[in-house]
């Protein structure tokens, strides 16, 4: 069997790290099995779905290195959903209901007040043809519900009906269909909610595994029943834990929390984000993994925790720095060029340990080639002025820093921080930075002299 997975976002906003975590789980699962990855846009909500959001989602996935084998749009497949709906109607499994949202809310509140589960009472099934005609004459339009198979012939006498499956993340799972309301599949305006299109697409596209968030666990029981009603087998499911913010708040596309685009624009490496998104909330240690193939080797759905996983952007800093510190010059060469840094490998190897992000190289390039203005402490002014006279003659090499500071130590008696820090500050404007032994030759003799007071 060929493993086929799908990532089905709604193009109604920018995806956040929680959405992309699901995409990464599916991509890595497919890669590990030599399977296929389908990007399928759930764009049946015509008012909220936008082409620019779909384009942004593809851009975000490409940033991670996710290259779909197939791209589909549900708005192109409405005829298939119409055919499935017609079959369910003909089989008596899709029935019209006319309650308004307010009426349904009142019924649910009444049920809770009486200590009952707020499950839909199948009032739509009780309506006669005359009653339906009367409601439609009032201007009401029906929404359509799927009749769950949780009864023995009398839909008003439900019985416990268990749907059980082995979940890739959660192990054995059971949902009682008698505890659920018949799901609405078609809205009053005739548009489809995600459930039916998703199932029809999974059948038509031969999706073998559905990996998604744990907020869909209960939906799996409903979807099992619809798969069966359409004469198809249900895929294998895996429901992973959800990411929250560091404060425990759920992520939302509408709020823009931790959007992939904002993380990318901040200069973070895609593999820093992917490493944290995939490994956090699992029993594995969170570490910076340099490419998706290596992350696929570590990826294991069985290690996913049952509890929610907090995603703290602050954790990205260390992961990102570790990746940058290990980056060879050929990997960053073109990126440095785009930043206006026309440098050789020696520059990158000297400064990369001090870069949290590749863009930080601009700062050190400015130190090497720009003007440094630093306020010299009164107690250090005489020392740095004197330092000018002890700068060794000739080209600045890796030995210059040691020779220079040794001569100054012998002349002034300064040592340790009192010896090195004033020189670093006047030459770089920094208290910390690259090893001065290696950095000094990049600055060059003329810049050194220009920065030392006379």
From TrEMBL:
<protein>
    <recommendedName>
        <fullName>Glutamate--tRNA ligase</fullName>
        <ecNumber>6.1.1.17</ecNumber>
    </recommendedName>
</protein>
<feature type="short sequence motif" description="'KMSKS' region">
    <location>
        <begin position="250"/>
        <end position="254"/>
    </location>
</feature>
<feature type="domain" description="Aminoacyl-tRNA synthetase class I anticodon-binding">
    <location>
        <begin position="376"/>
        <end position="452"/>
    </location>
</feature>
<keyword id="KW-0067">ATP-binding</keyword>
<keyword id="KW-0030">Aminoacyl-tRNA synthetase</keyword>
<keyword id="KW-0436">Ligase</keyword>
<dbReference type="Pfam" id="PF19269">
    <property type="entry name" value="Anticodon_2"/>
</dbReference>
<keyword id="KW-0963">Cytoplasm</keyword>
<dbReference type="InterPro" id="IPR020751">
    <property type="entry name" value="aa-tRNA-synth_I_codon-bd_sub2"/>
</dbReference>
<dbReference type="InterPro" id="IPR049940">
    <property type="entry name" value="GluQ/Sye"/>
</dbReference>
<dbReference type="InterPro" id="IPR045462">
    <property type="entry name" value="aa-tRNA-synth_I_cd-bd"/>
</dbReference>
<comment type="function">
    <text>Catalyzes the attachment of glutamate to tRNA(Glu) in a two-step reaction: glutamate is first activated by ATP to form Glu-AMP and then transferred to the acceptor end of tRNA(Glu).</text>
</comment>
<comment type="similarity">
    <text>Belongs to the class-I aminoacyl-tRNA synthetase family. Glutamate--tRNA ligase type 1 subfamily.</text>
</comment>
<dbReference type="InterPro" id="IPR001412">
    <property type="entry name" value="aa-tRNA-synth_I_CS"/>
</dbReference>
<keyword id="KW-0547">Nucleotide-binding</keyword>
<feature type="binding site">
    <location>
        <position position="253"/>
    </location>
    <ligand>
        <name>ATP</name>
    </ligand>
</feature>
<dbReference type="InterPro" id="IPR020058">
    <property type="entry name" value="Glu/Gln-tRNA-synth_Ib_cat-dom"/>
</dbReference>
<feature type="domain" description="Glutamyl/glutaminyl-tRNA synthetase class Ib catalytic">
    <location>
        <begin position="3"/>
        <end position="317"/>
    </location>
</feature>
<dbReference type="InterPro" id="IPR014729">
    <property type="entry name" value="Rossmann-like_a/b/a_fold"/>
</dbReference>
<dbReference type="InterPro" id="IPR008925">
    <property type="entry name" value="aa_tRNA-synth_I_cd-bd_sf"/>
</dbReference>
<dbReference type="InterPro" id="IPR004527">
    <property type="entry name" value="Glu-tRNA-ligase_bac/mito"/>
</dbReference>
<feature type="short sequence motif" description="'HIGH' region">
    <location>
        <begin position="9"/>
        <end position="19"/>
    </location>
</feature>
<dbReference type="Pfam" id="PF00749">
    <property type="entry name" value="tRNA-synt_1c"/>
</dbReference>
<dbReference type="GO" id="GO:0004818">
    <property type="term" value="F:glutamate-tRNA ligase activity"/>
</dbReference>
<comment type="subunit">
    <text>Monomer.</text>
</comment>
<dbReference type="InterPro" id="IPR000924">
    <property type="entry name" value="Glu/Gln-tRNA-synth"/>
</dbReference>
<keyword id="KW-0648">Protein biosynthesis</keyword>
């Amino acid at each position: 069997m060929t493993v086929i997975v799908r990532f089905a976002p709604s193009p109604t906003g920018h995806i956040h790290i929680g959405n992309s975590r699901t995409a990464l789980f599916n991509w890595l699962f497919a890669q590990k099995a030599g399977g296929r990855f389908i990007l399928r846009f759930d764009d049946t909500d015509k008012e909220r779905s936008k082409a620019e959001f779909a384009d942004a989602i593809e851009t975000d996935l490409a940033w991670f290195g996710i290259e779909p084998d197939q791209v589909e749009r549900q708005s192109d497949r409405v005829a298939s959903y119409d055919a499935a709906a017609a079959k369910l109607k003909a089989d008596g499994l899709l029935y019209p209901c006319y309650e308004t949202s307010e009426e349904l809310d009142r019924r649910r509140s009444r049920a809770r007040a009486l200590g009952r589960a707020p499950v839909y009472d199948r009032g739509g099934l009780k309506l006669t043809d005359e009653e339906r005609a009367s409601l439609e004459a009032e201007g009401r339009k029906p929404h359509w519900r799927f009749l769950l198979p949780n009864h023995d012939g009398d839909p008003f006498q439900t019985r416990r009906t268990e749907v059980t499956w082995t979940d890739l993340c959660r192990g054995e799972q059971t949902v009682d269909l008698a505890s659920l309301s018949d799901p609405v599949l078609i809205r009053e305006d005739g548009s489809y909610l995600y459930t039916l299109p998703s199932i029809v697409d999974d059948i038509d596209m031969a999706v073998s595994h559905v990996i998604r968030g744990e907020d869909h666990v209960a939906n799996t029981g409903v979807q099992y029943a619809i798969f069966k009603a359409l004469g198809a087998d249900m895929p294998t499911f895996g429901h992973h834990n959800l990411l929250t913010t560091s404060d425990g708040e759920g992520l939302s596309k509408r709020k823009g929390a931790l959007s992939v685009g904002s993380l990318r624009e901040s200069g973070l490496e895609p593999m820093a984000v992917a490493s944290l998104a995939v490994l956090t909330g699992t029993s594995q240690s969170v570490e910076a993994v340099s490419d998706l193939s290596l992350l696929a080797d570590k990826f294991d759905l069985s290690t996913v925790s049952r509890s929610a996983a907090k995603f703290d952007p602050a954790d990205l800093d260390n992961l990102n720095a570790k990746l940058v510190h290990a980056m060879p010059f050929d990997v960053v060469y073109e990126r440095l060029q785009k930043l206006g840094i026309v440098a050789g490998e020696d520059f990158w190897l000297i400064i990369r340990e001090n870069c949290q992000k590749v863009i930080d190289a601009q700062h050190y390039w400015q130190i090497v080639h720009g003007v440094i203005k630093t306020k010299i402490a009164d107690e250090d002014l005489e020392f740095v002025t004197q330092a000018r006279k002890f700068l060794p003659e000739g080209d600045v090499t890796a030995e210059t820093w040691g020779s220079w500071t040794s001569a100054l130590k012998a002349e002034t008696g300064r040592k340790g921080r009192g010896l090195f820090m004033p020189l670093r500050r006047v030459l770089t404007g920094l208290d910390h930075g690259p090893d001065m032994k290696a950095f000094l030759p990049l600055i060059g003799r003329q810049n050194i002299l220009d920065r030392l007071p006379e």
